[in-house]
Design a protein that fits this description.
alpha/beta; about 25% strand; about 30% helix; 8 helices; 5-stranded mixed beta sheet
Length: about 280
Amino acid sequence: MADGHTNNNHVHVLFSFSLFSRPSSVPVGYGYELLIQKFLSLYGPQIDVHSKFIIQLYSDEWAQYIDLPKGFGVTEKCKLRLVPLQTEVTMLGNLSPGTTAFFCCDMQERFRPAIKYFGDIISVGQRLLQGARILGIPIIVSEQYPKGLGSTVQELDLTGARLVFPKTKFSMVLPEVEATLTELPGVRSVVLFGVETHVCIQQTALDLIGRGYEVHIVADSTSSRSMMDRMFALERLARTGIIITTSESVLLQLVADKEHPKFKEVQNIIKATAPESGLLSKV
């Protein structure tokens, strides 16, 4: 169409990155953050998520690309390109409630007798979910083949979870999860916990950093059937830039200040020391 609009209130956009250019369409009003997610969906495997980027818009007036204007929203057919900056960005590991989501992975009944320290990681998971509800952090929960492996254990209160979904793929990063994340454009960091560390947790974490998210794995709330698999997975993931942390560290980082209005509620969660979940054990 001459005006660059499709029939469903979308706008044609040419997305360019490096040597590639791909036409697509986005809803009218798409701004910077959502456009970044669109570039990642189109070029994820080619993009180094540890680099910093800017988006540029092709200007007919200047006959060249210019930096995307502040407050830009797509209103008409246009050309955009993603440009990597030369300076590397160190992952700072900062967490704030408004930019964080919690992923609870496959904490199901049938895993109880097989997973090392399962009772401990459930106990820590309870703390994390309670803290997420207090701070208004979205929770996404997966269940691996629940028809055969059962539902999430009853000890974990999933009240208010944004999404609870079944899966057979090991990674949690499925279309329904990606759709939910597009509804949460402010989310930059994912706090991830559950089982098994070397399978579903590892594959979920790698898929998330491949899409530009910073990932924090809660070591005292993730485990495997084998301590060897668990510990080697945590070491491998740490080397990729994923942050290996603990439940208390996550919760206190999210409130950040004794004067935070929810500090006392979060403090009540951590008054008793969390179980070590086998992290200090030689077993």
